């Protein structure tokens, strides 16, 4: 099923009958399936208890009104094979990015959910952290990964630690697709060849990391980068495109395609998007960096909420999938 069609169904609620959902983990967070754990939120104990049962801990950060979180719950976690794999190999615990419940982190600190999210640098929801038996983070997913990608992530997250390849290498091996230049569709922004050369031009850089055969990359080109408003906004950037299997992308630990990496002229990374993204959030990410807002407000989610409120106050429609 085409991803856009899936999202339209998600927004309409067609994929989520009420009996399939359980109570929210705390007020104002997206609903989660009944098989998620009723944890006391001491993550040290959760890691140990999961290991005792031959499983690993999967920690989920979500928030109310997040369509990507809803997609995770009503698309990925309505897939019987994904549910079976997740329940067999992981203990799932849900946190609210804006919640106040006390969580004991692995170093013994006790923090409210929202503070732990800040400490962990959660900039996108859903964010998933997969821990191994020792409490080490085996894999982190920032943003929604469609089912095909998510199955690969679940397989990787349960590999033994010794000899485990990088996730980028694992993805490349699983995709089985040779690297080749990504074709630029008509109307896409002009691209440059290298990040270093782009930085020398004195403007912020947007590096778009793609992979051959990536349907989501083609969708980003077709439905996002060709939009007149986005084309205009990107005139303030030098746009380069890099292949996910290339040296630069590997050095940046890119684990999703397409990924968007925003870099200041000084070479400092300002922000990145590394999950499925619709045009509303693509435009917002560009604005977040272009206006310099990322310096004053390090929480992209707080800034995004304020931006949406401002647009509504101006009488403008806020459509997450426009």
Q: Strand percentage, roughly?
A: 15-25%
Tell me the strand order in the biggest sheet: 2-1-5-6
Helical proportion?
25-40%
Q: What is the number of helical segments per DSSP (H or I, 4+ residues)?
A: 14
Number of structurally distinct domains: 2
CATH architecture of the largest domain: 3-Layer(aba) Sandwich
What's the average pLDDT? 87
Please trace the helix and strand order, writing H or E for each element: HHEHHEEEHEEHHHEHHEHEEHHH
Outline the biggest β-sheet: 4 strands, mixed
Quick one: CATH superfamily of the largest domain?
Answer: Glutaredoxin
User: How much is the radius of gyration in Å?
Assistant: 20 Å
Structure report:
There is one protein chain. The chain is α+β, with helices and mostly antiparallel strands. The chain has two domains: 3-164, Glutaredoxin; 195-313, Glutaredoxin (3-Layer(aba) Sandwich), CATH 3.40.30.10. Helix content is 38%, strand content 16%. The strands form three sheets. It has a four-stranded mixed β-sheet, with helices on both faces. A four-stranded mixed β-sheet has the order 8-7-9-10. A hairpin with a 5-residue loop joins β5 and β6 (137-142).
